[in-house]
Amino acid sequence: MLRPAAPSDRRRVYAWHAKSDVTPSMMGPPDYADLTIPTCDEFCADYLPHYFDDSAPCSGRCFIIVVDRQDVGVVCYNAIDEQRRLTELDIWLRAEVHCGKGYGSDALRRRCAHLHEAYGVEEFIVRPSRRNRRAIAAYRRGGFELLSLTPAEQRMKFGEGDCGDSVLLLKRLPRTVDALEEVRHTRQAGCERDPSLDARRRPLRTGMVLSRPLECSQRSAPQRLPRKQLLP
User: Fold this and answer.
1) Pairing of the two strands 221-222 and 168-172
2) Out of 51, 82, 126, 167, which could bridge 214 as a Cys pair, Cβ 3.0 to 4.6 Å?
3) What is the tens place of the pLDDT at every residue in 179-200?
4) Residue ranges per domain, the chain?
5) Contact of 94 with 16, CB cutoff 8 Å
């Protein structure tokens, strides 16, 4: 199951991100010397408070992956691009003992389904390093398709990535009338963003243009630190 992350989870999630036994498989030397391990302050500057509360759900949110009442990882979505009905996902697990069991792939499927139903999101992207073969395989098991875009082409469509050898995987879900109605309901319930967050975000560049916008204020996507791409 997935539960919304709380402010009290923020430092634990950072520790899974930067100080666990899976960290060397995702960033830092020897294999990822170009992906610097962030300090806690850098992490918190990137994963702003709204990722851990319900203050700005259209700007990004983290969810804890729970298996048998144990927290085993986290999956996050970034700001929703309303024009393209698109968002970028991040995910990492707590420890090696939880890898290889399908928890990450299942969490991605659940999170995509919820975003599709609740906000009308139709396209989901992830951009791991080409070196992270285990992550790429897990994303594909979660329904993502590996696209043949160079890092330069990715930058043109989606802005700067985390590493120079990133690959792009995309998952598409079909548009439904129910999703559009749910978006309208969410708008009425106050799904608005804090305008002060805009200055901290990079725009997702024009790319896969979709026909109708979400009814959720269009904002830029946040600039990300190296993503945790380690999945089972």
Assistant:
1) unpaired
2) 82
3) 555 555 555 554 544 444 433 4
4) 2-222
5) yes
